[in-house]
Q: What sequence folds into this?
């Protein structure tokens, strides 16, 4: 749909606060961190010109050319970020490691892949990835590496932003002790994390004005410093000064690049927030406002440093013009503090979203997710994660007490995330965009070499604070990989031990058990068949409900699944059994919480399925008579249009189940006068009550397993399982209707 010019400009203005708060506050500490080592300033200012040249070309090539012009075009149904790129690859090359993926998932409206024909390069690469499960698992681990660094960014960003802003007060009050600066920073951080449960929508209207004011302030100060201190600073934009810088400074100059890379922190946030706006407003805001303002700010600060070498560690606040810094200092200091707080707020909210996506991909334990806005989708709050992030953030602030050391950790995290994006984009260019391998290799060599250069400089800073990123990444990686390994082993156990259909049907119409009035919802990890939990249940209690529904809640490799495509209902065997399968599908951006009257919606969907099944029974009866089975394998029916979807039919028309996709229209009230016999039985069963049957599994490593595996399963995974949020809490199941079935499985 066409968007008016006014709407685009409005969205571009709003994106300043939500997208560019991270990128725009980098001038607070870039020069300070760059010159924190043994790199010294000489009279000819070659070092300052060289650093400015590196900042300009890094900012231009990586941020403008790579992200704005190329990467932001690789959106997944409007969503951006690492998971969006991974999702595109999974759908186009079948790389997904998620269980229970079915052909019907490919009919989702958001599952569409590129229509262009495959090239021989894309076909060859896709087949290579599909035939090697180890490479698919390695790709997932590589994506998790970038994700763990992004979560670590959620710890480091508030610490360095607030501390860098607050420490500027020492320029005005030089006798102020560092302990007071740390104390004020910690108070602000505690207050910041304490108000997260209110959400960002209450103060979101402040985001864009504050960031816009901040950008205008630093660009205005930059213009003043350029003309006042060194009008010839524009010469530093020549790439020749980069070569001179490396030749003159040698190893020390190379190590200082770990500070230069901080000028592009926030580019991943820009890409990840693509779903909140669209590509065009974000591009307009960057090219017209953010890019020129930041370049002017860096040039002005460099011009000031050419005349004030001694102020390198406080160059940003020292560069503020005015006699004794009085006229302008305090307004800029206040705006800087607010900008740092808003930047931290945006990164914390993004961390909540990342962890929610990891949970959808079975890579993070279940946690409590709270929607903080009834109007804006996707604004969430995770209490446990919030307080853990706060503790880590306070520990870094109090322990390191220096923005230079925190900056070294920050640089390593950001460069790692950028390289993960570059590698995934290389695969997207070939597999999704169907471009030649030469273009993909050129993209990888151009941007990957730049990022590897900065990664190498940041790695050398590991003893000076860079180890913080590695420790945080290691902690989160252990949690994610262990949880993914344990859940996949559980899924494998369920598949290998599910009860066969023939065994169940051999027991007769009632399966040799007592049928009690009511509806039973048995949750399992299987999208088809009888779970092992069901066999364990009926063995100990040979009775189950008159209507039994096997519910499978699963994630699909798409950003979101619409409510009309959420449920897929199918019948288990014959009509006399009164048993159904219901698959509840979510995207990786969806919140898996059923607090919207799920019980009534499910019963309503089953009744619609039954009535639709009866309406198509007559046209299919003649076909079914030849096989002796009155069921059709796959009949796609859209209840809103009551049409037959021939694309869902396969060659084998007569197996044991009839599958229809139910388009839930949101109306839970169904007139009883329209019910047939089975519909009436389902409604009567519901009147007796609905029972939720959930599995309570306990994982154990085999006695022959290695020590590492026993430690991972028996200690780490068991601890996470015991302390994560239970399924009944996630599904909002009333305890009076809950029945748990305990099982132990060995891996």
A:
């Amino acid at each position: 749909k066409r968007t008016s010019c006014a709407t685009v400009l409005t969205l571009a203005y709003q994106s300043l606060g939500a997208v560019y708060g991270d990128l725009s506050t980098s001038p607070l500490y870039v020069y300070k961190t760059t010159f924190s080592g043994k790199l010294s300033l000489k009279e000819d200012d070659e070092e300052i010109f060289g650093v400015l040249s590196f900042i300009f070309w890094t900012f231009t090539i990586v941020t403008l050319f790579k992200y704005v012009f190329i990467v932001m075009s690789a959106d997944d149904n409007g969503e951006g970020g690492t998971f969006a790129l991974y999702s595109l690859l999974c759908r186009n090359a079948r790389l997904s490691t998620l269980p229970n993926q079915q052909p019907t998932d490919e009919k989702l409206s958001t599952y569409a892949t590129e229509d262009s024909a495959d090239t021989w390069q894309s076909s060859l690469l896709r087949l290579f990835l599909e035939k090697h499960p180890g490479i698919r698992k390695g790709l997932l681990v590589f994506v998790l590496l970038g994700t763990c660094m992004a979560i670590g960014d959620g710890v480091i960003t508030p610490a360095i932003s607030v501390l860098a802003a607050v420490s500027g007060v020492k320029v005005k009050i030089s006798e102020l002790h560092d302990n007071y600066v740390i104390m004020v920073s910690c108070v602000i951080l505690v207050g910041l994390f304490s108000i997260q449960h209110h959400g960002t929508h209450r103060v979101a209207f402040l985001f864009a004005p504050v960031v816009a004011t901040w950008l205008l302030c630093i660009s205005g100060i930059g213009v003043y410093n350029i003309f006042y201190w060194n009008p010839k600073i524009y010469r530093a934009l020549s790439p020749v000064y980069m070569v001179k810088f490396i030749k003159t400074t040698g190893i020390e100059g190379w190590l200082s690049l770990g500070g230069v890379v901080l000028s592009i922190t926030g580019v991943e946030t820009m890409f990840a927030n693509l779903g909140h706006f669209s590509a065009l407003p974000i591009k307009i805001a960057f090219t017209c406002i953010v890019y020129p303002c930041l370049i002017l700010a860096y040039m002005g600060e460099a011009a000031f440093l050419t005349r004030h070498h001694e102020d390198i560690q406080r160059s940003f606040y020292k560069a503020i013009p005015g006699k004794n810094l009085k006229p302008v200092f305090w307004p800029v200091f206040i705006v800087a503090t607010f900008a740092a707080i808003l930047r931290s707020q945006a990164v914390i909210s993004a961390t909540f979203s990342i962890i929610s996506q990891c949970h959808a991909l079975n890579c993070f334990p279940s946690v409590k997710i709270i929607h903080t806005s009834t109007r804006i989708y996707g604004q969430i709050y995770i209490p446990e994660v919030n307080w853990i992030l706060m503790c880590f953030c306070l520990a870094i602030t109090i322990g390191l007490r220096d923005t230079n050391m925190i900056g070294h950790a920050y640089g390593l995290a950001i460069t790692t995330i950028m390289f993960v994006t570059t590698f995934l984009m290389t695969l997207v260019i070939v597999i999704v965009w169907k471009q030649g391998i030469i273009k993909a290799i050129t993209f990888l060599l151009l941007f990957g070499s730049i990022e590897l250069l900065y990664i190498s400089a940041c790695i050398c800073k590991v003893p000076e604070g860079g180890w913080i990123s590695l420790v945080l990444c290691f902690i989160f990686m252990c949690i994610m990989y262990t949880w993914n390994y344990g859940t996949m082993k559980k899924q494998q156990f369920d598949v290998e031990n599910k009860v066969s259909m023939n065994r169940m049907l051999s027991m007769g119409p009632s399966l040799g058990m007592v049928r009690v009035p009511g509806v039973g919802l048995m949750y399992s990890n299987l999208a088809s068949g009888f779970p092992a939990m069901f066999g364990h249940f009926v063995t100990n209690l040979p009775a189950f409900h008159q209507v039994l529904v096997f519910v499978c809640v699963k994630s699909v490799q798409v950003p979101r699944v619409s409510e009309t495509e959420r449920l897929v209902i199918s019948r288990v065997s014959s009509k006399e059994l009164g048993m159904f399968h219901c698959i509840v599908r979510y995207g990786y951006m969806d919140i898996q919480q059923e607090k919207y009257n799920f019980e009534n919606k499910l019963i309503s969907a089953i009744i619609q399925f039954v009535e639709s099944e009866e309406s198509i029974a007559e046209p299919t009866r003649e076909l079914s008579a030849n096989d002796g089975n009155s069921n059709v394998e796959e009949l796609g029916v859209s209840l809103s249009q009551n049409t037959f979807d021939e694309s869902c039919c396969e060659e084998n028309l007569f197996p044991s189940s009839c599958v229809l996709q139910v388009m839930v229209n949101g109306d839970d009230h169904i007139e009883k006068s329209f019910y047939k016999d089975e519909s009436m039985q389902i409604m009567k069963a519901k009147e007796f009550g609905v029972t939720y049957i959930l599995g309570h599994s306990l994982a154990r490593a085999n006695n022959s397993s290695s020590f590492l595996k026993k430690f991972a399963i028996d200690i780490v995974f068991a601890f996470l399982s015991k302390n994560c949020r239970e399924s009944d809490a996630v599904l909002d199941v009333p305890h009076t209707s809950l029945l748990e079935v305990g099982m132990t499985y060995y891996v």
Summary: The chain is about 55% helix and 10% strand. Residues 511-614+675-746 form one domain.
